[in-house]
Amino acid sequence: MRSSGSSSPDSSLPPDQSLVGRVRAGDPRAIARAISLVEDEHAGAADLIAQLHGYTGRAYLIGVTGAPGTGKSTLVDALTAEIRRAGLTVGVIAVDPTSPFTGGAILGDRVRMTGHASDPGVFIRSMATRGHLGGLSRATSDVALVLDAAGRDVIIIETVGVGQDEIDIVRTADVSIVVVVPGAGDDVQAIKAGIMEIADIFVVNKADREGADRAAQAIAANLSLHTFAPGEWKPPIVRTEATRAIGVDELWRQIGRYREHAADRQQHRRRERQVVRLRELIARRLVQQVESTLPPGELERMAARVAAREIDPYAAVAEITSRATAGRVPPQPGSIAPDPPDQDPAQPE
Predict the structure, then answer these.
(1) In whole angstroms, how far apart are CA 311 and each of 299, 314, 322?
(2) If exposure means fewest CB atoms within 10 Å of the residue's CB, which of 23, 135, 175, 335 is most exposed?
């Protein structure tokens, strides 16, 4: 299932049959279409985001990450139900591994969320990573913007099962939740993993299993190594049994506590997030521009020279970029500008 549900069209909005107008009105087909354009990097996607961007910034983004098998999808399903009981609309972006056969998302985990399929206040979208590292899809941020513009109050982003250095979620969400389970291996090693350092809230899921106390104690011991300044947020440890929705209300309460605590820093965090996003887009645009200036097969020929040790990779990149930007790169600070051409003395100054 690719998507399910949407809010009812907002009668307060002016009639608008354009895709942007229909997205803003909460039309589920329009939302799905807009997300497809963004995910497929369609030629009109940038213009679509440009038109929607002014209507965003209201939704609260919750990131849920953790290793494979921690029950993230089940937890997201239970958290979605808890948020709906609070009267808020929800958008769910579930990032799945890319299928090696079709290139699409492996949607097995989405069957755990089918209970919300008939809820007009929930919109669920599965996305493939398409080879992008970091636990997210390259288009995740823009998909979140679409759901934000469509009036979702809360957007939950569930990453793929990630390792210790795949922490893009902290650059995407307003609050990051790291899910662990008891009995998943060496507790100390799990705590040392880089992913543990990004948590605003820890969740020990499947807390009815043996070893839950030990997992919670290991997290607490790791937190005790850090000296928290007065007023600094100390990540709480929430125990849940997502399959029975036990502890999910406490998780939602802790999310509310963090949102209130970080309210004065939220804009700063969002600005930092946009710096990262702009750098990513600039890098992609420059790569596309450089590749568009190269003759067909030139990149492969240069790679063959590197493989044959005829040239080193840095020199190859310097040669490629020099040719691609010839005559278009302004002088660097401190460089000597070329002398102006001699002026014809017959011409007036």
Answers:
(1) 13, 8, 15
(2) 335
Confirm if 6 and 31 have CB atoms less than 8 A apart.
yes
Residues 99 and 32 in one domain: yes
Q: What angle do CA 125, 197, 154 make, to 5 degrees?
A: 30
What distance in Å separates the CA atoms of residue 331 and residue 171, rounded to the nearest whole number? 34
The verdict on 157 and 305 lying in the same domain is no
Record the pTM: 0.78
pLDDT in tens, 72-103: 999 999 999 999 999 999 999 988 765 544 55
Task: Indicate whether 133 belongs to any domain.
Answer: yes
Joined tokens for residue 80:
């979605």
How many Å apart are CA 302 and CA 319, to the nearest integer?
10
Relative orientation angle of helices 313-324 and 298-307, to the nearest 10 degrees:
160
Same domain, 254 and 106: yes
**Residue 112: partners with Cβ closer than 8 Å, 6 or more residues away:** 73, 74, 77
- 107: which residues sit within 8 A by CB, 6+ positions away? 1, 2, 96, 126
Three-state SS sequence of 245-297: CECHHHHHHHHHHHHHHCHHHHHHHHHHHHHHHHHHHHHHHHHHHHHHHCCCC
